[in-house]
Amino acid sequence: MTLTGKIPRDFGNLTFLVSLDLRSNNFHGNLPQEMAHLRRLKFLDLSFNNFRGEIPSWFGFLHRLQVLNIRHNNFTGSIPSSFFNISTLETLNLNFNSIEGQIPKVIGSLINLRELMLKGNKLIGSIPLSLSNVSGLETLQISTNSLQGNIPEGIGNLHNMNFLSIEYNQLTGSIPFSIFNISRIEFIAFTGNSLSGDLPNDLCNRLPILKGLFLSANKFHGHMPTSLSNCSQLQLLGLSENEFDGPILSEIGSLTKLQGLGLGSNYFTGMFNLINAITIG
Q: Average model confidence (pLDDT) for the chain?
């Protein structure tokens, strides 16, 4: 509605409010402390505005909150530890702010969390091992930060994971083999890190519904997985700017749903011809 201005303190009087949706306006400034009185809130969406200041710690008082979406604002500071008092939280979306610091280790206490989205911030440090305790997690999006270290082996224990994106960080080491056991996963995106190692030959046998695999701009090596033809749902495959070698498998031609293919800047050998391939980075 292109509304503008600041959120009035009187909002705190709406104590029976269950859902508050203010997205896609031009609200700015800090959120009033009085909003902490909205104890019945289950849904709070403040996305696509110009709110600023540190993320309010009083969010932690909203004990019934299931969805908290504040993406695309100008929030700063670190992720408040009080968030992790909200045991009912199912979706936490902080994408595209200016949030700093580390991902809190106590995130493992959010046992009902289904979606965690922290893309496009200034987060540092490593990926907490405690994430593996959030057994119901389906979407993990922590791309475009400054995270370092290895991908924890425990992420492979998240058997409900559907979407895993850790692109454009400073991660090293190999992909934990356990990730290839998440049979429900559809999208894996690790582009733009310093990951290395090779891919298992039976990758597509393990991930039967995989639709997108993005590994470009890393240090992966070895041959393409021989099971590639078994990825019958694959739509996007990005392997560019790595150290893969050996032949480009003709089995790629049997992937009838493939829409984008990126193989450039590797050490592949032999001849390859694929009609209607679209190069992706």
A: 93
